[in-house]
Amino acid sequence: MNDLFRAFEISASGMFAQRIRMNTVASNLANYESYKETGEPFRKLEVVFEAVYDPERLGKGEVPVRVAAIRESDAPFKIVFDPSDPRADAQGFVRKPNVDLVKEMVDMISAVRSYEANLNAFNLTRDMAQRTLELWR
Fold it and tell me: How many structural domains does the chain have?
């Protein structure tokens, strides 16, 4: 029965991590054209996952995941020539946020699919536990 709880824990950790990833992508999409109060363009946020390392569980193939950090991307800002923009520098170039809509949408689809895979694993484990309990009756 302890193995079932570990399976639930692993699936739940994956769902939690992917939910954080989906929220982060949503934040990036919402701030696609945003600037900070200082005038600096919004920097894309990235989620960093980390495996929860336990040598005993690793040998059994049990590796939960956790969100280690949410950090700002170090990718360069987009540079656009638009001398009419009030944010333009002396040469007429404007720094825009480093959010790429297509990449964000692909990341969102990937996060949703990963969440669904973890949810399916969770539900299958639950069904197995229920069937086992029914057999014991």
Answer: 1
Helices (H), 41-100: 55-58
Which range of residues forms the domain containing residue 80? 2-136
Dist. CA 39–CA 70, nearest whole Å: 22
Place of tokens 């969440």: 115
Specify the pairing of strand 93-96 against strand 78-81: antiparallel
pLDDT of residue 1: 54
Radius of gyration in angstroms for the set of CA atoms belonging to the chain, rounded to a whole number: 22
CA angle 56/58/61 to nearest 5° reads 125
- CA-based torsion, 26, 30, 36, 37: positive or negative: negative
Query: pTM here?
Result: 0.85
If 0-12 CB within 10 Å is exposed, 13-18 middle and 19+ buried, where does residue 52 land?
middle
